[in-house]
Structure formats: structure tokens, C-alpha cells
Amino acid sequence: MRRLIGVAALLALAQSAAALDLRESWNLMQFQGPTFLSAGHERDAALENRAIGKSGLLPKIGITAFDNHINGTQKQPDLYGNNHTNDLNYASRGATLQLRQPLFNKQKMAEYRQGQYQADYGNAVFDGKAQDSAVRLAGRYFDVLLAHETAKLAAAKLNALNEQVASTQRRRELGDGTVTDVDEAVARRDLAQAELIEAQDSLVVAGRQLQEYIGEAPEQVATLQDNFPTPPLQPATLQEWIIRAGTDSPSIRARRLNVNTADEEVAKAKAGHWPTLDLVLGYTAADSETLSTQNQRNRYTSAGVELNIPLYSGGYVSARARQSVATRDQAEEDLNATREEIISGTTREFRSVQSGEARIHALEKAVISSERSLLSSKKGFLAGSSTNIDILNAQEQIFTARRDLFEAKLRYLLARLRLAANVGALGDDDIESVNGYLGPSLSF
Questions:
Q1: 296 within some domain
Q2: What is the tally of structural domains in the chain?
Q3: Average pLDDT over residues 282-300
Q4: Could you report the per-residue pLDDT of 125-165, keeping only the tens digit for each?
Q5: pTM higher than 0.85 for the full model?
Q6: Is the same domain home to 291 and 365?
Q7: What are phi and psi of 425, to 5 degrees?
Q8: Contact criterion met (CB below 8 Å) for 442 and 148
Q9: Which domain holds residue 295?
Q10: What SS3 state is found at 309?
Q11: Domain check: are 125 and 175 in the same one?
Q12: Which helix or strand (DSSP H or E) is residue 390 part of?
């Protein structure tokens, strides 16, 4: 995944007094979001597998020291069969420095290769989690925008229904309206009041869920601009996107590296049948006393090779090898399953982008048609060809169309981000592109 945002951008964000937008939310999440930081620590831990795997091929150096005091008695017969008792009271101390270097060890070689794969796996997992976090962040951000728009429309709907209630009551007082018209308007108004309360609760919850990702509560956010272009996808065909997903998807890369790691686990298990050869160098320094020697001092070095040939381990090595082969086969099937899942997800998001564009255009027309329908219903009511219920239905339709249009735009942008994430290409440019659709400021 391409590197996303530097420290300078974070400092600029801290100094900015503008409303929080998607790009700045992404900066904040990388800087202090616990979900993103957790993924970074997981990657750092995985990268240490390189050093861990390499360590098995490097020499091991250690020192063994001892300091013993012998205190006791010794009985020893002489030439005539008489026992003589001698007191034992002396010290023995020393240290040994040893270096051991593997010369031939197939298990350590497999662990070295396994460490490289595990580190690469950690990078792939981090790439996937980072891009998934970006998509989830966008989803949380868009939830705030949708909740705010829903609350705003609910409030406007309530005001319109209050006016309709007042209008029907005046008409009834003048003898033109009916009790049924008043009751219907009041019922719609009361329902709108309940919808507004629910929308306001949803807005509070959406704001708190966004805070989970960015680490602080936003005071203002940027919402959608009126201008909403829908450029064509690049590449333009589904097959090209599927090919990119098969090669660049972090999830597929991670599964492929997991298979490689499992292969090395098989090699490591089978290496239990092979001998090992080590170079061993040592230096010993010891001071001791015995009954026959006083202040004995030993200083010597040693050099040699040590061969270890396994003969029988109770069937452990063979069983471990069979277990590793089964685990490797499982990893291969997990790779196949992930590949199919990514292809399905890429297909779904590709179709969502294409159909989302058409749905936006259709809903834009629906909003215009609903506004005309409301105007016609009001004129018809004055002319006697429409009823109060027709006006209420037209008002309901226009607010529903406006909300559906706003939601369709958010879903379209989210689908573009998900499509990019599926193929492992979600980066700064995608975040910035979606951020370009934002502008007006909203306050909580």
C-alpha cells in the first residue's frame, strides 16, 4: 500500500480550524486511532521474525561458571587392610567459554526461510488492515453525514407537517375542511416528531462511533457538495479489476505467504530425520584442590565438530511431518477460498459503482418529480381535484427521495473505496479524490 500522509500533514491538521473532512479524519486515525495503531504494532512484531529466523544460523556464545566447596570425609584402606579417614575440605572453581556454530542443520535453514515469509506476511496483513481501516473510517464518516441529513430532513418534514396541521385546522374553522383532514395531518405530524427523535439519537451514536476511529470527538464535519460528478472507472472492465485483485490484493498475498510458511513448517518437521553438524570452540579456566594436589590451575582451549544423528524419537518426527502436511493443505484451501471471496467482493463493488451512478441520476430526477408532484397536489387541492391526503403523501415522497439521493451518493463513494481496497490499491489519491466531494460544514 502506498505511504499515506506524513508528520507535516498532521501538524497542519492540528493548526487547522476548518471542519473535519475525510482526509483529516484519516490523518487523525493514523496518528492516534487505536485500531490503526494496533495494526501497526502487530506488523512491527511480525517483522522481528526475520531476525528470529536468522538467529538460528548464527553462532551461539555462552559462559558456564562454577564455584564449589567440597567438605566431607574419605575412607581409604592401606596395604595392610587398615582404613584411614581423611578430611575433605577444598574449593573448586572455574569457567568455560563456548562458541557453537551450526554447519549443517536443515531445521535451522527452514526456520530462517520461514522467518522471512512470516515478516512478509505481517506486512501484507498490515496493508490489508490499513486499507480496511480506511474503508471502515469512510463508512463511519458517511454514517455521520447520513444521520445529520436524515435529522435535517426530519426537522424540515416536521415543520412542513406543522404548517399542514395549522392549514387544515384553519380550513375546518372556515367550514372548508373536515375532521378527517385534521386528524390525518396530526397523525402524520406526530409520526414525524418520533422520526426526528430517532434521527437525532442516530446522529449522536454515529458521532461516537466515528470518535472510536479517530480518537477524538469532532465538533464540525464537512458534508457533500451539491456538484456530484461520477467519472468512469479506470480500468473500465470487471475482468481487469479481477486480474488486479488476484495479484495485488493484500488478503491474497497474505494467504499465499501463509502457504509458503506452512511449506517451511513441513521442511522443518522432516528435517528431524537429518543429522546436524556443529563447530564447537571452547576455553576453560579452573582452579581446584584435592588431597594430592594444592592450588591446581587448569587453562586449556578446545576445538572440534559435533555430529548428532537422530535414530529414533518414538514416531514424533513422522507424526509431526504428517501434521505439517495437513496444515499446509489447509493453508492452500484457505488461499483458494480467499481468492474466490475477493473475486466476489470485487464483482460486487464494481457493480455497485456502475449501478450507483445510474441510481444517483434516477434519484435526482425523482427529487425533481416529487417537488413538482407536491406543487401540483397543492394546486389541485385549491381547485378541488386533490385531497389533503394527496398533499401529505407528496410531502412524504419528496423527503424520502431527498434522503435516498443523499444515501445513494454516499454508497457510491464508499463502493469506489471498497473496490480500490479489494485490489490493494487504496491510498492517498483515493482518499483525496473522495474528499473532493466534501465542502459545506456541519456542526454537531
A1: yes
A2: 2
A3: 76
A4: 999 999 999 999 999 999 999 999 999 999 988 988 888 88
A5: no
A6: no
A7: -115, 5
A8: yes
A9: 61-103+275-309
A10: coil
A11: yes
A12: helix 388-422
